[in-house]
Specification:
The chain is of the alpha/beta class. It contains nine helices and twelve strands. The structure holds NADP nicotinamide-adenine-dinucleotide phosphate.
């Protein structure tokens, strides 16, 4: 990297714990360098007990903004001045912008998801979809799709949590249902794994592969080929992993911080290079 850090360099980064595995520094620094922006993106490991000081420190140090990752996406909320509508619904913040000492909280996962579908040539309008999970990622995806799809089913290991998400989304579209019956999966155009089952190869499948049918779109938010995606491929489904969503949630954060159109191609190359390592 040929970036020159000097007294005018503007600071961005990511706070998480752990954070060493993050792919975002390469992605954002490549974009800053390509556009000749005097910005820098750092990975900052913040222990849970220090989150308050870290967020307040963003103001004190004059950071432009940061991404927020596990386990701080909810914990930062009390220290944010203004939370946008989408992040409020999701109940989690993945991007903070410092606007002259006021911290604004966003969640860019839903926009990243929609943009990644667009790139795959997929228009979810009128589709019937099944979302597996009810955590932050499922809420982001549900919110981004709720006005577009004709019907949405939510399935989650912990029923109360799944039901609660379905009830909240139903207020925005009456065709949202919590389900315990995975047979509905067979009628869905798209099945989205928004659980963390699949992060490790030894994890159980989030849904039995027998429910998948040929021609369905199976989207796993995890950014690698998971056992679910391998099974889906065997069944003749169109499979998508979470790399595109990761890229586009980052591109959206870049847009929020800089007001500049992100060089998505450069960001993707940096991301794929790291994923190949
Ligand atoms: P979270 O808030 O902790 O929620 C985890 C969800 O996974 C819950 O619904 C949980 O069910 C379910 N779950 C966990 N282990 C399971 C298992 N063994 N079987 C069935 N369900 C299980 O996490 P999150 O932030 O939503 O993240 C979920 C996944 O999305 C992660 O893998 C993350 O890497 C991915 N993600 C990707 C992107 C991207 O840009 N590609 C962005 C955000 C997240 P319970 O309610 O029953 O616990």
């Amino acid at each position: 990297m040929n970036m020159e850090i000097n007294a005018s360099t503007r600071l961005t980064g990511i706070i998480g714990y752990p954070v060493r595995h993050s792919l975002s520094p390469e992605m954002h620094n490549a974009a800053f360098e390509y556009l000749g922006l005097n910005y820098c993106y750092l990975a900052m490991e913040v222990k849970p007990e220090n989150i308050k000081y870290a967020v307040e420190g963003l103001k004190a140090l004059g950071f432009v903004g940061v991404n927020v990752t596990v386990p701080h996406k909810q914990a930062v909320i009390p220290f944010i001045d203004v939370i946008d509508e989408e992040a409020k619904f999701i109940g989690a913040i993945n991007t903070i912008k410092n606007e002259q000492g006021r911290l604004i909280g966003y969640n860019t996962d839903g926009k990243g998801f929609i943009q990644s579908l667009k790139e795959e040539g997929i228009d979810p309008s009128g589709m019937e979809v099944l979302i597996l999970g009810a955590g932050g990622a499922a809420r982001a995806v549900g919110y981004s799709l709720v006005h577009k799809v004709s019907r949405m089913y939510i399935y989650n290991r912990t029923e109360e949590r799944g039901m609660e998400l379905a009830v909240r989304l139903k207020k925005m579209n009456p065709e949202v249902f919590f389900t315990k019956n995975l047979d509905y999966c067979k009628v869905c155009d798209m099945v989205i794994n928004a659980t963390s089952a699949g992060l490790k190869d030894s994890d159980p499948l989030p849904i039995d592969a027998d429910y998948l049918t040929q021609g369905q779109i199976v989207y796993d938010l995890i950014y690698r080929e998971t056992p679910l995606l391998r099974e889906a491929k065997q069944k003749g489904c169109k499979v998508i992993d979470g790399t595109g969503m990761l890229l586009h949630q980052g591109a959206e954060a870049f847009r929020i911080w800089t007001g500049v159109e992100p060089p998505v191609k450069v960001m993707r190359e940096a991301l794929l290079k790291r994923l190949r390592e």
